[in-house]
Amino acid sequence: MNQEKINALRNFMTTFEASQDPALWDKLIAEELAEVREAVVNLAKELADVEYVMTGYILASGEDSVPVKRMVQLEAIAFVLENLCGHNTEMRQQVFQFVDESNLSKLDDDGNPIRRDDGKILKGPNYVPAEQTIREFLFGPMAKPAATN
Prior knowledge:
This is Phosphoribosyl-ATP pyrophosphohydrolase. It comes from Roseibium alexandrii (strain DSM 17067 / NCIMB 14079 / DFL-11). By secondary structure, this protein is mostly helical. The protein has helices at about 5-15, 20-60, 70-85, 90-105, 130-140, and strands at about 115, 120. Strands 1-2 form a two-stranded antiparallel sheet.
């Protein structure tokens, strides 16, 4: 382990008279890992959201008229999502599919979209967030959101 990190933790533990009980530190590790899992779920969902919206932009603009800047942004988002999914294209596509299914659940009770004044489609009463599905897909069916302090 890095000596600077060891020194920093020794300083922290001395300054705060932190517990020397490994069981507490084990519990803290579990809490931090749960927070990391939640961050990964949220990042995957948000990256897929951006890819979703940028794909809509391409469809609305026409592929041949999309500015290079936007295409570069889409490629960058796709690259980050691909890396987050461990270069697993099927996993990346599945996360995108979960976002698509979530977006399709935005319809109202009569099956109609609810729109903001500028045309953005809003979440309806039947909206199902993608996060839980993504969480279960990435970390298993027993994965739960990280508890907040």
